[in-house]
Design brief:
- The structure is a single chain.
- By secondary structure, the protein is of the alpha/beta class.
- It has one domain: P-loop containing nucleotide triphosphate hydrolases (Rossmann fold).
- The protein is 34% helix and 21% strand.
- Strands 2-3-1-4-5-6 form a six-stranded mixed beta sheet, with helices on both faces.
- α3 links the parallel β4 and β5.
- The protein is globular, with a radius of gyration of 14 Å.
- It binds guanosine-5'-diphosphate and magnesium ion.
- Magnesium ion (MG) binds next to α1.
- Associates with the 50S ribosomal subunit.
- This is GTPase Der.
- It comes from Denitromonas halophila.
- Belongs to the TRAFAC class TrmE-Era-EngA-EngB-Septin-like GTPase superfamily. EngA (Der) GTPase family.
- GTPase that plays an essential role in the late steps of ribosome biogenesis.
Length: 163
């Protein structure tokens, strides 16, 4: 069975950029406008001889009750149900937000491995950046730059360790 990696996180943290890098496609919509990916996007990638499926979700608000935010949350919940591993992305530039906390609260109840991925980490002090997000209680943050590719290969190596 091909393992499924699911990207979750609030809008604009860089999920679609990481999706494109992991699948080497331009399939996911990347935009400055938050929340552009409203449904789930699927792509395949390969590390060495190992294939994996990547699912890109719209940024989601786990407590949204109606409207488009609720539909995004529903899509994200479906993707979470399909996941072998979850990649919870946060934005190292904007820092920890209440919205990140809400998503973290949801992900703490997931019974599969969750990797806390701090994106936009290019040029930053990784230890300092990581420390801020440790407070989410989801383990050691992995600092990457989806746009530049820094830390993406080590992240995949860590994921395949637990699969
Ligand atoms: P999504 O809403 O989570 O899917 O985020 P996107 O992938 O659409 O990216 C949102 C914005 O962040 C875009 O302007 C990207 O170019 C930018 N971005 C994504 N990854 C990085 C990164 O590693 N570093 C920086 N500086 N910007 C990034
Ligand atoms: Mg997106």
């Amino acid at each position: 069975m091909i393992p499924t990696l699911v990207l979750v996180g609030r809008p604009n943290v860089g999920k679609s950029t990481l999706f494109n890098r992991l699948t080497k496609t331009r399939d996911a919509l990347v935009a400055d406008q938050p929340g552009l990916t409203r449904d789930r996007h699927y792509g395949v990638g390969r590390l060495g001889s190992r294939d994996y499926l990547v699912v890109d979700t719209a940024g989601f608000d786990p407590v949204a009750k109606d409207g488009i935010m609720h539909e995004m949350a529903r899509q994200a919940e479906q993707a979470i149900a399909e996941a072998d591993v979850l990649l919870f992305m946060v934005d190292g530039r904007s820092g920890l937000t209440p919205h990140d906390q809400e998503i973290a609260n949801r992900l703490r109840r997931v019974d599969r491995p969750v990797f806390l991925v701090v994106n936009k980490g290019e040029g930053a002090n990784r230890a300092v950046l990581g420390a801020e997000f440790h407070a989410l209680g989801l383990g050691a943050p992995l600092v990457i730059s989806a746009a530049h590719g820094d830390g993406v290969h080590p992240l995949l190596d860590e994921i395949f360790e637990v699969l």
